[in-house]
Every structure is written in C-alpha cells, then in structure tokens.
Design a protein that fits this description.
Strand order of the largest sheet of chain B: 1-3-2-4-6-5-10-11-9-7-8
Largest interface: A-B, 45 and 58 residues
Largest sheet of chain B: 11 strands, mixed
Number of strands of chain B: 11
Strand order of the largest sheet of chain A: 1-2
Oligomer: heterodimer
Strand content of chain B: 5-15%
Radius of gyration of chain A: 23 Å
Radius of gyration of chain B: 20 Å
Number of strands of chain A: 2
C-alpha cells in the first residue's frame, strides 16, 4: 500500500489550464448545435408513489461509517 | 461446486488483481448457489458496492468504507447463484487506462509480465485472465472494460447506455458509464449480462428492454456488413496492432462477412470532447467524498490524476468558463454521436482496434495526462454516443494480447455479441 502522493496543486492547475486550452482549440471548429447531456430520456419520477422496501440493518451499518454520530445525526466539525 | 471455489481460493494473487478477498463470504455463498450463475466465481471492481466488503475505489479516500448495501447488479448476481470471491484492483476512482494508479499498487498483466494490465478495470481483467475467477464485473466510462480486456486477452462488453442499472456504482462520469461483464468467452459475458441487465426503478437512466442475449447468441457471420472507418488507420500508433487489425478484417471476410468503408471524420476530436465532459461530471460526482459521513476528504487523500480531474472540473464549472469548454464539449458530443450513427446506418456493426498501442512497461510510468489519455481514442466514441461495444481477443502482437473492437447501434447489443462470437470462433480455429 502506497502513501497518497503529495502533489503540487498549483502546478497541476497551471498545466491543466494549458491542457484545457489545447482541448478548446481542438474543438474550435465544432458548429453550434444541440448539446448532448444524456443519450436516454430522463424522467423525474420513476418509482411508484408508495413506501419502498426498507433494509432494517442499513442504518446501523451506515452509522459505523460516519466519523461522528450524535442523537441520530452525523456529527461534523465546523469548517476551519 | 465448492471444490472449484477452493481451487481458485488457493491461487496466489501474483498480479495484484485483488484489493481484498473474502473467502469465508464466498464459501457461505457457495453453499446456497442456485440459478444461472450457480458455481460461477466472480471478482467485482472496487467501485461497485458489495455489502460488508471494502469498496474503496482503490483510493485512500475510501480505505475504511465498508459498503452498507448491495448495488443492484450485486443483488442480481447473488440471486442467480454467483459467488463473489473479492474486490478487484482498479485505477483510483476509475480515472485511468493503465491500472497503475491504485493506492493499493499496480496490477500486473498476467499475459505480459512486467507490463500494465490496462484500466481502469485492471484487476477484473487480470483476475479472469490469470484464472482466479470465472467472470468479473468492471465499469466502462471511456473504455475501462474494453481496454484491460484487450490487453489481458479476455472478453469485455459495454452494453447500450441504460441496459444495466448503475445504482450502487461509484460514478466516474454518470452520463457515460455502464457496469460491464468480463469473462473468458463471449457466451460467459452474454450470460452475466443477462443476469445484471434490466430496468431498475432506483436508476432513472435504466431501460426497460427484453434481455436474453446468451440464448440468442448467433455466431454466423455470413452476409454480415461490417464497417471499417479509415480514420482508425491514421490513429493506430503501433504498426503491429495495425497489421493485426487488418489480418482480423481478412479473417472476418473469410468467415463470410463484408467489410465496408465508412467515415468518422471527427474521431480526432473524441479525446478532447470526452475529457471536457468527464472533468465536469467527475468534479460533481466527487462532492460527496467530503469525509463527513464516510471515508476521508478526497482532495487531501487522492493521487495526482484524480486531483487533476477535480480541479479542472471545478475550474470549467465556473460560470464564465462553461460556454468555452463544457457547452462546446456537449455540442462536440452531438457531432461525434451523429457521425457514429451515420457510419452505422448501412452496416450491422463497426469493427476496429480497441487501443492504438501496446501496454507499456510498469517501469515506464508517466504522469503526463496526454500520454495516458491517448489509450482511449478508439473506445470513447461508444461512450459519448451510448452505443454497445465489446472487445474480443484477436491474437497477439509481439507476444502481447490484443483485441478486436465491435461497435453497434443503440439497443443492438445482440448484433455486437453475435459478431464477437463469430470472430471468437474463427480465432479458436486459427
């Protein structure tokens, strides 16, 4: 198992901006046309308007994942 | 049944195909294994939730995340008797085509020692190739199933977008991604697809369609019209792969198929189009990894490529840049999609290369994104258009496996699988 690398964020962003410019140049001749977000039609309501099946064990398993849990709520540190 | 499982469990993971194995869970599942996958042993890519298993996405960010539920595909595999032996290695958050950006170390190619296995579903392909499992699940956002299948000499198939529910998969880019079957043969892959496919109310993009691919598999190539875009030749970097592709075309002709010239004039725009879309979608998808409810904060724990995609996605998403990059990429996506549909109009399927070059050596690791992105040029168009595409073994180049890609029209997954099966039969005889 390797330690996550210490990466130079500033360098990544600056080099990344150059990459975006290259990509932008490659697409400059693309004509104005419709945009493809999804290739299938999306529907907002897909489930029957009724209670779903409940996995009784889920909550306990989920609680174990959270770093902090108090009175039925996830406990989160204030942003520093 | 359990004898088969025990034999597989005894095998040493020489290629780092697994992040974690679960022998006791597998033995328990084997006791009750009934259904279409009875006795079949599977590896699952580590970005698909399997209840009680480490679903880390091969990242330090989620190295303590034990999935509290099963993805829909996992529910279906378990219901049909599949035995899950462990969680497969992968590129971190599926952001790669090489299989060597995992926090848990690189996957080695079982067929080409010292070389990458391809990615991002590196461990899934390697596990099948090395004989650790019968089948595996990968995901494919821009080639992540087809690329490692090609390099490891196995079969991988990305179905029409919406055929398989993505509920429970940790998305890389949700408008492009599908969960995909991998196996040693086209019939194994078709069988696994039969099990995992179908409408799921939990995934708004999933389609209601008839699923019976394995029963209807027809390898007869006689009279099949196969399109070959000449632009493929211009972008294949390796001479050996070019020769292999043209030898494959001859074999298909000998099998009774007709090869027809078609055009994909915007193929060279596929990589910029794909990555501009991916950056934005990946940035959005990773906002849940804030370390508050599970795991750790992603920006503080991820590798370089993951951070690059997050930072560039954030940058593009700023209002002033949307039109310049993202909206343009969405329009380019329409152009590529329309061109692919035109190329497919008068043929049954397209055939061609999976990758432009052979897998590099593990020791030649690079962090130059353009070098790594170049692997994707032939695979991303199928994701941008949401069409079915698969990779089937096509022999070797310098002793390294390579594959033939077959691409079809939306919802014509059966035709793609049929041509793959026909080609597989030819290869077996040669």
């Amino acid at each position: 198992m390797s330690d996550a690398k210490k990466v130079d964020e500033k360098k990544i962003l600056e080099e990344g901006k150059k990459l975006l410019e290259e990509f932008s140049q490659a697409l400059k001749d693309v004509p104005e046309t419709e945009e493809t977000h999804y290739v299938v039609d999306l529907k907002n309501v897909t489930r029957p308007d009724a209670p779903g099946k409940c996995n009784a064990a889920f909550r306990g398993k989920f609680e174990k994942l959270a770093p902090g849990w108090d009175y039925g709520y996830v406990k989160v540190e204030k942003k520093k | 049944m359990s004898e088969h499982l025990e034999k597989l469990l005894e095998k040493d993971d020489k290629f780092n195909a697994f992040i974690k194995k679960y022998p006791e869970k597998a033995r328990e599942q084997a006791k009750h294994s009934k259904g279409r996958l009875a006795g079949k042993v599977l590896a699952i890519k580590s970005c698909i939730n399997v209840e009680g298993c480490l679903t880390s996405c091969a990242s330090k960010t989620l190295d303590n995340y034990i999935a509290p539920y099963d993805a829909t595909v996992i529910e279906r595999i378990k219901r049909d008797g599949g035995i899950i032996i462990g969680m497969a290695n992968m590129d971190e958050f599926a952001c790669g085509a090489t299989g060597d950006s995992s926090y848990y170390g690189p996957t080695e190619n079982p067929c080409a020692p010292g070389r990458i296995a391809g990615g991002s579903s590196s461990g899934s392909a390697a596990a099948v190739s090395a004989g650790y499992v019968d089948m595996a699940l990968g995901t494919d956002t821009g080639g992540s199933t087809r690329n490692p299948a090609c390099y490891c000499g196995v079969v991988g198939f990305k179905s029409t977008y919406g055929t398989v529910s993505r509920y429970g998969a940790c998305d890389m880019a949700m408008s492009l991604e599908q969960i995909c079957p991998m196996g040693n043969t086209v019939s194994d892959v078709a069988l696994l697809l039969d099990v995992i496919a179908g409408r799921d109310p939990k995934d708004a993009t999933s389609l209601d369609r008839r699923i019976d691919f394995s029963k209807n598999l027809n390898p007869n190539l006689k009279g099949k019209k196969l399109g070959y875009p000449k632009e493929f030749d211009e972008l294949i970097a390796d001479k050996g792969i070019r020769e292999n592709v043209h030898a494959s075309l001859e074999k298909l002709k000998d099998g009774g198929a007709k090869i027809i010239d078609v055009k994909l004039p915007s193929l060279s725009k596929a990589i910029p189009t794909y990555y501009l879309n991916v950056y934005v979608e990946f940035f959005s998808a990773t906002r849940k990894y804030d370390g508050r409810r599970f795991g750790h904060k992603i920006e503080e724990n991820c590798g370089e490529e993951v951070l690059r995609r997050i930072m560039l996605g954030s940058y593009i998403s700023q209002a002033e840049w949307q039109g310049k990059y993202y909206k343009k990429a969405l329009m380019a996506r329409s152009v590529i999609r329309n061109e692919l549909m035109r190329a497919l109009k008068d043929v049954d399927v397209l055939v061609g290369p999976v990758v432009p070059q052979l897998p590099r050596k593990l020791s030649e690791k690079t962090t130059d994104p353009k070098v790594n992105y170049a692997y994707d040029v032939f695979t991303v168009p199928a994701n941008l258009a949401g069409v079915p595409a698969g990779s089937v073994p096509a022999g070797t180049v310098n002793g390294i496996p390579t594959g033939l890609q077959v691409i079809g029209k939306p919802l014509e997954d059966q035709k793609v699988l049929d041509v793959m099966a026909g080609f597989e039969n030819i290869i077996k005889l040669t």
